[in-house]
Amino acid sequence: MGGIVVFGAGGRAGRAVTAEARTRGLTVTAVVREPTRYPDLGARGVTVVRGDVLDAGSVAGVAAGHVGAVHAVSPASGPDDGVDAVDPGFFVQAADALLDGLGTAGVARLVAVGLGANLLGTDGRMVLDDPVAFPSALRPFALAHTAGLDRLRERGDGPVDWVMLTPAGFLEHGGPRTGRYRVGGERVPGGAGESGERSDGDGAGRPWLSYADLAVAVVDEIEAPVRHRARVSVFNVRDGKR
Ligand SMILES: NC(=O)c1ccc[n+]([C@@H]2O[C@H](COP(=O)([O-])OP(=O)(O)OC[C@H]3O[C@@H](n4cnc5c(N)ncnc54)[C@H](OP(=O)(O)O)[C@@H]3O)[C@@H](O)[C@H]2O)c1
């Protein structure tokens, strides 16, 4: 199998995907906006290149010759990083540039990382629409992310076979690689009709995922695609010991 191209390779998910791909012997083209900011990224089998996920020409240029692409880009890294003031069109523009650029480059597979806030809660609303469960300051970011998912769906019949893997629950940076994960649908796992797991007072049964296991799921969907032109949730379930 040839290499993969990772957009957002300097971020938490991008680094985890790069590491997972390398353990499987896949070469990685690591796309960042400014390579001099990432002197630690280059390694055996990893080529760091400059690129912009918002520019279809840039995407096509860095993606050509790869078997698959990963979208692990985010315009904000957390609550203290301008998450309340993101460009509402960021993820739509990224979806368009990726679908157009990968199509031009002949790269037929895209695995995108989603956001749990647009999974459905037990009342049928998206989590982001529940003001009790979801902080209002994060809502603009979540809406922008959701618009990007909608754009992928609108353009679902094009040449690029995409899947969005949405981490359900807490995504733990530095958490262990178990090599396992569960795949759900549109609902937050644990609600009626999903995994059937129930949460107790210690958090046991709650959906959760490490970045490392997210990366396992991402690389699985590149190496052996199972889901096509769809969004699914990806999660593990706390056993009460963590
Ligand atoms: N529980 C959940 O649902 C959950 C939790 C956390 C994250 N996520 C999602 O997971 C994905 C990855 O998040 P993360 O935590 O890995 O984010 P992160 O650590 O902030 O990394 C995001 C990366 O995107 C890059 N980037 C920003 N704009 C770019 C552009 N125009 N072109 C190319 N790269 C660009 C940034 O690199 P440069 O600035 O150097 O370009 C940065 O390294 C996001 O979609 C995020 O929303 C979901």
Brief descriptors of the model:
single chain, 242 residues, alpha/beta, Rossmann fold, ten-stranded mixed beta sheet, 5 helices, 10 strands, 27% helix, binds NADP nicotinamide-adenine-dinucleotide phosphate
Would you give an account of this structure?
Residues 179-204 are annotated as: Disordered. Residues 8-189 form the NAD(P)-binding domain. This is Flavin reductase. Pfam families: NAD_binding_10. GO terms for molecular function: oxidoreductase activity, acting on the CH-NH group of donors, NAD or NADP as acceptor. The protein is of the alpha/beta class and 242 residues long. The chain has a single domain, classed as Rossmann fold, CATH 3.40.50.720. The protein is 27% helix and 20% strand. It contains five helices and ten strands; from the N terminus they run βαββαβαβαββββαβ. The chain has helices at 12-23, 56-63, 90-105, 139-154, 211-223, and strands spanning 4-7, 28-32, 46-50, 68-71, 109-113, 161-167, 170-172, 182-184, 207-210, 230-237. Strands 1, 2, 3, 4, 5, 6, 7, 8, 9 and 10 form a ten-stranded mixed beta sheet that branches. Strand 1 (4-7), helix 1 (12-23) and strand 2 (28-32) form a beta-alpha-beta unit. Helix 1 packs across helix 5 (211-223), helix 2 (56-63) crosses helix 3 (90-105) and helix 3 (90-105) runs parallel beside helix 4. The N and C termini lie far apart (36 Å). 44% of the residues are buried. Mean pLDDT is 91; it is low at 192-202. The structure holds NADP nicotinamide-adenine-dinucleotide phosphate. Residues 7-8, 10-14, 32-34, 37, 52-54, 72-75, 77, 113, 115-116, 145, 167, 171 line the site of NADP nicotinamide-adenine-dinucleotide phosphate (NAP). NADP nicotinamide-adenine-dinucleotide phosphate is lined by residues 7-8, 10-14, 32-34, 37, 52-54, 72-75, 77, 113, 115-116, 145, 167, 171.
